[in-house]
Amino acid sequence: MIYRLIVFFILNFGALALGSIFTGKGVPSEWYQSLNKAPWTPPGWVFGAAWTTIMICFSFYMAYLWKNEELRKYLTVLFSIQFVLNIIWNPIFFHYQNALFGLIVITALTFLIAVMFYKYLPYLKIRSVLILPYLIWLLIATSLNAYILIKN
């Protein structure tokens, strides 16, 4: 379990690091600061705290699932798609300033995490709560992205 957990910590936090590298100036950029943002947009520090919590929980979630060899092939596909979508949203939204394509990507990611929750609930039972912070945050983030697309 410890080995699997370390691998998923590296992969998940690596995805966050890669996404941030390709983000450009991100939140402090003039473009983002000038946007009409949703009234429920959390303060900037919440994003870092949320993603840290999410990736810790998601790493445990994946480590628990990974021990079941029957699930690995399909799980590898889902995890890989999640990995790519998670990385590419930041540059799409912040660097390329494309709220529409960003919304498409984050909606796909939200749907994928919902599918993972539902599909693996029978295997993990109560441990499935470990993916809920990710799903809840993505629902919030999707609404924030949609608001920016509609109001700007």
What does this structure look like?
With 152 residues, the protein is mostly helical. The protein has one domain (2-151): Ferritin (Up-down Bundle), CATH 1.20.1260.100. Helix content is 77%, strand content 0%. It has six helices and no strands. It has helices at 2-21, 30-33, 44-66, 72-95, 99-124, 132-151. Helix 1 packs antiparallel against helix 3 (44-66), helix 1 (2-21) packs parallel to helix 4 (72-95) and helix 5 (99-124) runs antiparallel to helix 6 (132-151).
Enumerate the spans where pLDDT stays under 50 for 5 or more consecutive residues: none
Largest sheet: none
CATH superfamily: TspO/MBR protein
User: Given this structure, which CATH class is correct?
Assistant: Mainly Alpha
Q: Total domains, how many? A: 1
